[in-house]
Amino acid sequence: METIFSTNEGGEEEAGGILNFNEFKDRVIRSWKWLLLSCSISLAVAFFYLRYSIPVFQSEASILVQTMNQNNKELAFLNELNIPVGPKVNNISNEIEILKSEELLKSVIIKLKLYQQLFLIGNKSGIQRKEIYNESPVDISLYNSDTLIHPSGTLHYYITIIDEKKFEINLANNRKIYQYGEKCPIPFSANYLIVRRSVLYEKKWQGLTLEVTAIPITSYLNKLRSSLFLSVSSDANPSQIFLSLRGSNPSKNQVTLDQLIADYEADGIRERNRIGQNTSLFINERLSLIEQELGKLEVEVEDFKTTNKLMDVQIDASSVVSKSAETEKLISENQIQQSLTNYLLEYLKKTNGFNDVLPSNLGLNELSINRMTDEFNRIISERNQQLQYAREENPNIQRLEAQLTSLRTTIEKSLKNRKSALQIELETFKSNENRFNNRFQNLPRFEREYRNIVRKQQIMEELYLHLLKKREENEMALAATVGSIKVVTMPTFSMTPIFPKKQNTYFLALLIGIFVPIGIIFVSELFNTKVKTTKDISNQRLTVLGEIPFEKENKDILSELSYKTALSESFRMLRANLAYVLPENNGKGRAIAITSTIPKEGKTFTSIKLAVSLASTDKKVVLVGMDLRMPKIPEYLKIDDNLGISNYLIDSQLKADDIIKELDNKSGLFFISAGTIPPNPAELLMKPRLYELLEELKLRFDYIVMDLSPIGFVADSYPVIEYADYVLYLVRANYLDKKMLNVPASIVKGNKNPNLGIILNFSDFDKKGYGYGYGYGYTYGSMNGSAPKAGNKSLLSRLGNFFRFS
């Protein structure tokens, strides 16, 4: 045990913050048992959490979206034939929105029945749950009036596999056994379930329970969106999209990504085929009308020949025909262009909405009209794509519609201008033709009429062949249309879950196990304002004369000091320190006043033990009870308190010998009790008769140990303190507030008695590593009660002592 004698007089007050780091560190080290227990509990919780939590797996895939500036080498031969294969993607952000669109995700959910989740319940604990998907032994469908439907609300039930013919269903706490394929009515609903045995059924499923949860498609849609992550690659390849999906079943994630990519590609192909399909409808309609016209012309030719009784008409005017051949060709091409122009104008009048695309690549010679038609179709396609994830009030949609309206007006105006120009050209060609026709004035009338009929027939035949050619080209384009994506990485998954991760979970549990006790210690230290160690006292420039540990004393309070306890050793140390600080008194005895700030700090017990310790050195010691309000010495010594200090001060007839009593079997140890409790103890202790008594006691005894009342509440003891040769001031550890140290400091600074030393009572030597391996401390209960021996302690008591929080 260290020498407990320290002072900070004359030095500067130690700078201390709210929390002393060294004390905090020492307390953490002393609490290693709690750290060990906390870490063990945290790791155990982490183990059970990893065992029974549902893991989350991640599947990944990547696709390459072909943009407008990317050439398709496989379809290069179609480009050489001037056959369009559909527009390419020109905005990668739009494609990401399409991938997450409600229509596309709903299609995937319905096809794969993702709204229906099956969990396999653990055999032993019933806690562990594992989601199964493509290995389920049963197939479940929901019906209403023999019509397959989807759940409109959440449906939760359990299915227990009995054997290959029967199963038990627990629906709304209603258990019933059914055959596979039977109708299972749903309570409070017209719907029913049909459970069929799947091809994956095996005997290993018998006796196992499946937990089934079916939720509305819209609810699962939000869940799927939150677990689906899409991102674009770096600038080096901005057209590559990475897809990742998180869920509790890795194979389910993979199948979902596969279906999402397939549906996305099919949706893109359908969108690109819309233009070709509309063009095909337009061409077929035109061909039907031309076939009717050709049929009429053939009948007209037949009637003409029959009327004129001609089998064959040959005009021997080769020279005139050769000169007019070029003019006739120009007239024919002009009339074809006029027909195509009229057809497009009629189509524009019939289609006024924003959903109908214009026929393209019909053979118009006006390149500007062809370009505007292609641009018009491209904007319609872009508008339809954006409508999948935006409303018509969206500014982008309205902007596209404004462009379509303006472009439609421009196309219509251009077609009218083109029609007028073709009419002017036709008149010019006919004027030239008339010059040649004048040369046929001498030909028979029927030859000229026949020629006109043949010309009309040739025009219709050429137009018919032209549209047939365009129809074949359009069909080839439809057949050659491919998706705008290429799968770079097929959906793959890892059997290692991304959450929870075993190493991270155990590491986090270990950190929690370490920092929870440390945090508790930190908070308790931060808000603890009690005196804990001698350092708190030294900071107030007070002398620390000794420390008394906490120990359950087994013997009588007046027993001789044992050499086996830290309590006895602490009083010996206090006795030795007093020898250094007590002043010389010219052969007289020295008066030692023992007091404290508040009650229950142990001053009476310390007074008795100090008196016993001093008497054991063959000194004559008297113990004086000066606490006239709550005297405790008679209670501790188990004696009657008939005559004492109060009686002596009131009755002048009493002498010192009348109140001085010798303790039995204690040579050299006497005591004076407090006496009858008076109504005015403060005034009583100020009488000169008290000082006369103390002077007499100094002449008769070596030490006068005075047990005073607490001076933090009452002022009774101040006169006695001023008279005492030395003041022992009791401070109970972890009980007295640090602010109350101002009371003993004021005694020293106010020169009421500069000879003052602090005794830290209830000091915990265990926390400092002091002592010799014995039990420490004492209590203020019954002093005759014997503490249990170490070997007889209960297991609960020993565990409590082991995990006593420092």
What is the general shape?
Answer: elongated
Q: What structural class do the secondary elements suggest?
A: alpha/beta
Helix content: 40-55%
Mean pLDDT across all amino acids:
80
Count of helical regions:
23
CATH architecture grouping of the largest domain: 3-Layer(aba) Sandwich
Residue stretches low in confidence (pLDDT < 50, at least 5 long) are 1-17, 69-78, 80-89, 769-792
- The domain count comes to 4
CATH superfamily of the largest domain: P-loop containing nucleotide triphosphate hydrolases
Q: Cα distance, first to last residue?
A: 20 Å
Determine Rg (CA atoms, Å).
55 Å
CATH class of the largest domain: Alpha Beta
Approximate strand percentage: 15-25%
Number of DSSP-assigned strands: 22
Major β-sheet profile: 8 strands, mixed
CATH fold type of the largest domain: Rossmann fold
Task: Give a short summary of the structure.
The radius of gyration is 55 Å and the shape is elongated. The chain is an alpha/beta fold and about 800 residues long.
